[in-house]
Amino acid sequence: MTQSHLELTGVDIEFPTPKGPFQALDNINLKVDEGEFISLIGHSGCGKSTVLNILAGLHQATRGGVLLDGREVDQPGPERAVVFQNHSLLPWLTVYQNVELAVKKVFKGRMSRAEMRDWIHHNLALVQMDHALHKRPDEISGGMKQRVGIARALAMQPKVLLMDEPFGALDALTRAHLQDSLMEIQADLGNTVIMITHDVDEAVLLSDRIVMMTNGPAATVGEILTIDLPRPRNRLALADDPTYNHYRHEVLTFLYEKQKKVEEIGSSSPAAAKGTTKDKAKERVA
Amino acid sequence: MNTNLSLKTPRAIAPFVNLARGESPRAQLDVLFRTVGLPVIGLMVFLMLWSGVAGKIDTSLGQFPGPAQVWNQAEALYVEHVAEREKAEAFYERQDDRIAERLANDPGYEPRIHDYTGKATFFDQVITSLITVLSGFLIASIIAIPLGIITGLSRNLYAAFNPLVQIFKPVSPLAWLPLVTIVVSAVYVTDDPMFDKSFLTSMITVVLCSLWPTMINTTVGVNTVSRDLLNVSQVLRLGWLTHVVKIVLPSSIPMIFTGLRLSLGIAWMVLIAAEMLAQSPGLGKFVWDEFQNGSSDSLARIMVAVLVIGLIGFLLDRGMLALQRAMSWDKTAIMR
Ligand SMILES: Nc1ncnc2c1ncn2[C@@H]1O[C@H](COP(=O)(O)OP(=O)(O)OP(=O)(O)O)[C@@H](O)[C@H]1O
Ligand SMILES: [Mg+2]
After folding, report:
1. Proximal ligand: closest to the CA of A28
2. What does the pLDDT look like over B201-234, one tens digit per residue?
């Protein structure tokens, strides 16, 4: 029997609440190959973060489970690095020290001091943050913090990189920039990436497959869309690409017709999502 | 106002500096009035009320002392202190001379050096009290912070310890004191004691009363470490010690210091009371002696002690604040 790299099988989760158990996820099944880039998309509150936390080992599935290279995931660990939505850097450590904390933990005994230092520099250079090594998180911008969070995760050399809306809090220009960086890095390193996003363009541009989740409670995988676009992908070229726009349309249809939310949240309305590709393209040129 | 500047120069001086730089005189004068003028006015009003009320209180030891009498006694206490020091020096000089003389006559003589046993002056008592309070506070902190961290990290230990803490926290030092005195006398028996028993008694009483605020606040601080940072720690699988040192301690520093400042304040109050009751050397004993003495100067001398106790309490708190500033990573946080 061939085994997939990462496998979720029949994952359910119930949260105990004062009003009895609340079932957030129902029978999630997903197989991920090594080096694949997967996006999780779905309406707010459907349970995307919960899926990611189960993969990270921060939550335990009530039923079903997760296998990574044939081993059960039952606790957090650095081979499944997480980039948190709100960067989660330690505010009392500098950029360098934040990455160092992870590197020291993961490579203790395997790298010399000098090698560690080079490795930290290398990873911060990957995200173009090697100019602010000795600044503390409150001295750098939101985009920079997110870069450092990514560098910290990459520096752990994880088998799987888990990202919870890594660019959600950033302005469009910074976001586009980081998306391009992420595509380059992933092309180089070939990490398996699972990323939560709210942004349809982001999902289509970056992913090999998009996992679309139904609305909660008891959310599950609704559809899986394979994005068959050649890499490297260029956002400018893709803006007018009919295949690309077809994929976008598929995702939008799923979100706003099949899984239409009754109490719609205005911020991520389809109109706003539609306008972004061209705007971003312009911003990149500028 | 230039906030940058006021961060570096002390608040009271900043307006002068800014005035000298010619920055909008009107605003600077306002600041000057608030930081220097108003406190001075407050002090004046207090002194006036004090001397007014003091004149109306007649006691068995004469009129209640006003600011002027108190000031005179403060000077008198200083003069006494200087005189006592001179006496002590003279005593040691004489002793040295005598020993040198005997040694010259009889080279085999082993000199015995006697300590000067004069009366402890007000300043000696202040020093004694300071040493006692700081050692008690230090020991209490060394016990309370680790204990607070451990109970903050483990729900089970919290459940085990919390009832005890809640019961011992409100106990008055005066209730502990007899127990401590008797236990110290029974347990601390050596021929060559390193510490006075009275010192130990006062100090242990201070420890028993100043443990709790630090411990409780540390526990709360540890409990409120952000979920995100705990997740980071879990994903990295940090060891227990690294977790505590890199994540738990820095995030709970503000709460720990809140506890430490409360503890130090309590320690200082408790110490004075304990010294009074136990007759151990220190400011409390000074106050008690003057009370027993009952001379016409006594009330003014006690008043000097009261003011000095207050001033030292204030300075101790400022010291802790300075320490907190030095140790906290967030230099922009507002602390008062
Ligand atoms: N610890 C918990 N206890 C109880 N309920 C929870 C807990 N964590 C999440 N939930 C519930 O599970 C559901 C899914 O939450 P989750 O955070 O995974 O949503 P999400 O898809 O990440 O939303 P968003 O896009 O807004 O981040 C929500 O209804 C939430 O209220
Ligand atoms: Mg979420």
Report:
1. 1
2. 999 999 998 999 999 999 999 999 999 999 999 9
**pLDDT category of residue A1 using cuts at 50, 70 and 90:** low
Q: Residue B293 and residue A22: Cα distance in Å, rounded?
A: 75
A96 CA to chain B: closest CA distance, Å? Answer: 14
Token duo for residue A200: 């349809």
Question: Distance of CA A138 to CAs A103, A141, A142, B189, B331, Å?
Answer: 22, 8, 9, 56, 11
**Does residue A74 sit in helix, strand or coil?**
coil
Kindly tell me the burial class for residue A161, based on how many C-beta atoms sit within 10 Å of its own C-beta (0-12, 13-18, 19 or more).
buried
Residue B11: the pLDDT is 63
Does the distance separating the beta carbons of B238 and A77 come in below 8 Å? no
Q: Which of the ligands is closest to the CA of residue A42?
A: 1
pTM: 0.81
| Largest pairwise CA distance in chain A | 57
Nearest CA distance, A218 vs chain B (angstrom): 25
Q: Helix A142-155 crosses helix A113-126 at what angle (to 10 degrees)? A: 130
Using the Cα atoms of residue B2, residue B7, residue B8 and residue B11 in order, give the sign of their dihedral: positive
CA Rg value for chain B: 26
User: CB neighbours (10 Å) of residue A75?
Assistant: 13
- Strands (DSSP E) contained in chain B are 58-59, 62-63
Alpha-carbon distance values, B76 to A19, B281, B308 (Å): 74, 20, 15
Whole-angstrom distance, CA of residue B128 vs CA of residue B199: 9
In this structure, of A261-270, B312-321, B326-335, the range with the lowest mean pLDDT score is A261-270
Q: For residues A125 and B109, what is the distance between their CA atoms, to the nearest angstrom?
A: 78
Q: Which residues in chain A touch residue B332, judged by CB atoms under 8 angstroms apart? A: 138
Q: How far apart are CA A245 and CA A227, in angstroms?
A: 11
Distance CA(A194)–CA(B168), nearest Å, equals 52
Amino acid at position B130, single letter: L
- Judged by average pLDDT, the poorest of A23-32, A253-262, B321-330 is A253-262
Lining residues, ligand 1, CB within 6 Å: A 15, 17, 22, 24, 42, 44-50, 216
Cα–Cα separations (whole angstroms), residue B38 to A20, B30, B44, B311: 59, 11, 10, 19
- What sign results for the dihedral spanned by CA atoms A66, A68, A72, A74? negative
Other C-beta atoms closer than 10 Å to the C-beta of B304 total: 25
How many angstroms separate the CA atoms of A255 and A273, rounded? Answer: 11
For residue B228, the chain A residues in CB contact (below 8 A) are: 84, 86, 88
pLDDT band at A281 (very low <50, low <70, confident <90, very high): very low
Mutational test site, ligand 1, from A39, A43, A48, max ligand atoms within 8 Å of CB: A48
C-alpha A119 – ligand 1 centre gap (Å): 36
Which residue from A60, A106, A43, A53 is spatially nearest to A84, judged by alpha carbons? A53
**What ipTM goes with this model?**
0.83
